[in-house]
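Intended use. Records such as the DNA-binding response regulator, NarL/FixJ family, contains REC and HTH domains entry shown here are meant for training and evaluating sequence-to-structure methods. They are not intended to support clinical decisions.
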Amino acid sequence: MEPESHVSVVIADDEPVVREGLRLILETQRDLRVVGSAGDGRQAVRRCAELRPDVLLLDVRMPHGDGMWVLAELARRKLLGHGGCRVLMLTTFSLDEYVDQALAGGASGFLLKSSSYEEVLAGVRATAQGDGFLSPTVTRRIIDGYVRGRSDRTVDATDAARIAALTARERDVLRLLGEGLSNLEIAQRLSVSEHTVKSHVSRLLSKTDCRDRGQAAALVRRAGLC
């Protein structure tokens, strides 16, 4: 019996073996359905326009329009975010410099191509629910990179004002979001209920004008809250 609802996914990557591997993982789940695939940027935009998927798994580097171009084009066509698809970027360690740009451009998170079976499923589901997702390994790399270069950076005044508006507990939660922790993991770390964490996350996203957890993690990086 088919589930009452499912998450529809389009996979965009110029490597056929990556597309097929992700498809095989996702199609083991009754609540996830791969409805299309694309091998380049222009094709990815066309697939999203035609199929209106819930989630687009999008490679950062592709021919005929890379991931950044696809994000911008989806936004221009109003096919991104609310009323459109949510984008989970596929990346490798060598592409950390794209994280901030992609999150600012509307991506909901990042997933390593080498991620485990469980991480792929968790990432797609979190993205579909609007929570955003950063692979823990990617998050650690982001934070480590920020720490190495922090002495050469200053905190943007707007970011500083957003953080200043948070309560001490909300800042604690924000820091843990930046580490890539789930609501349950944050609750365990802070010895509070998961419901309480959800409330803190909702309030801090509103106060910081972050669309989702991915943008909150980018704020943590910029502000050095690690």
